[in-house]
Amino acid sequence: MTAPLDTIHDTIHEWLQRATGLADAKIIPANDGMSPEPTGDYISINIIPDLMQASMMDEIQYTATGEYTVKGHRTALVSLNSYGPNSYVHLSTAKAVQDAPSIRTLFADALLVLVECRNVRDLSSRKGQRLENRSQMDCLVRYAMSFTDDVNYVETIDYTINAVENDGETIEDSVTDSVAE
What is the pLDDT of residues 142-159, one digit of tens each? Predict the structure, then answer.
């Protein structure tokens, strides 16, 4: 079972871009490590998938061909960190528009649900001789995922029946049964 991390990232990225007006290069994965830190205002997206159930029960299906499929809903925690002079404004704006029909449609089209965004926190602090403006907000995104396993099954059964009749004669019969769907 793998979480649709690319889909979650791309959808969050699009939402933040619509809400803040930031350029594409100003919204980055938190764990990128390959790109230089952008200057000015930018937002990093850190997705923490949770493979635990988000609903009461998973749907489990068995098939006659031996497949075992588990379908269920999961929740990912998405930590957004915004940097720059407008860091608080950017996340506050994104939070304010999270329930807009166009944003709900954006997530629905990606088969995701933006469940909630928690309060924006101002984490600004001194970094050397300067003030680093930083704000943070956690969001919960729900998604569906499934896992199919081939658990094997009995296709045919071969067996031999030995019976002894009253006169002492042994009768042998070989039988093959196929398991029907």
Answer: 998 777 777 766 666 666
Give Cβ neighbours of residue 19 (< 8 Å, ≥ 6 apart).
90, 93, 94, 96, 97, 103
78: exposed, middle or buried (C-beta count within 10 Å: 0-12, 13-18, 19+)?
buried
- Give the pLDDT band of residue 59 (cuts 50, 70, 90): confident
> Residue 85 in contact with residue 142, Cβ under 8 Å?
no
Backbone angles phi, psi at 84, to 5 degrees: 110, 175
Share of the chain above pLDDT 90, in %: 50
Are 50 and 76 spatial neighbours (Cβ–Cβ below 8 Å)?
Answer: yes
Question: What is the C-alpha separation between 35 and 148, in angstroms, rounded?
Answer: 36
Three-state DSSP at 12 gives helix
- Dist. CA 65–CA 94, nearest whole Å: 47
Write phi, then psi, for 46 (nearest 5 degrees).
-120, 115
Instruction: Give the total residue count for the chain.
Output: 181
Identity (one letter) of the amino acid at 160?
T
The span from the CA of 78 to the CA of 16, in Å, is 12
**Looking up tokens 């960190």, which residue turns up?**
81
Query: Is 0.85 surpassed by the pTM of this model?
Result: no
The label of the residue with tokens 């990225």 reads 13
